[in-house]
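Notes from hallway chat w/ T.B., transcribed later so I don't forget. T.B. wanted the structure written out for a chain they're using in a teaching module, and asked if we could keep both sequence and structure tokens in one place. Agreed to drop them here.
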Amino acid sequence: MAPSVESLKNLDLSLLAQRLGKLCHQHDVEVTTAESCTGGGIAQIITSVAGSSAYFASGYVTYSNVAKTRMLGVGEAALEAHGAVSEAVVKAMVTGACDASGADIGVAVSGVAGPDGGSDEKPVGTVWLAWGSGAAPQAECLHFPGDRHAVREQAVRQAIARLVAELDARGETA
């Protein structure tokens, strides 16, 4: 039985990244990232594992809406209708990253890390995360406590945990 995302979030981040690497090898998949508020933090953790070049070829830091559109093909209509911190946008980001890179699985994140930029609808600590194959990503909205560093760190941890859980689940159905 695959571990829960909750139990994975308690693992040391380097151990979580190593587990992701083993699962990528096991399932023969390439992973990509599409990051906004984490600024490349997810890719940094993935590539901290020796041998990660075998399963991680590229990641995208698309901090601005223009970059999300240009690099990942996120529609301007989705950005205008929902804002960058939304389910529609992170799903489009992960799909665009998988399409652009040729990766089998990806993760995307966009959020309000703070200390400024929050609103009543999307307060500081609001993070949208999407993961999975480019064709049918899953998404969730999270609300993390703490300062900018804490929000970003929790978003990175959750992103890696979601990838691990996704690949663990693939092992159960194989």
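Follow-up for T.B.: The helical segments are 5-9, 13-27, 41-46, 65-72, 76-82, 87-101, 148-173. Might be a good example for the class.
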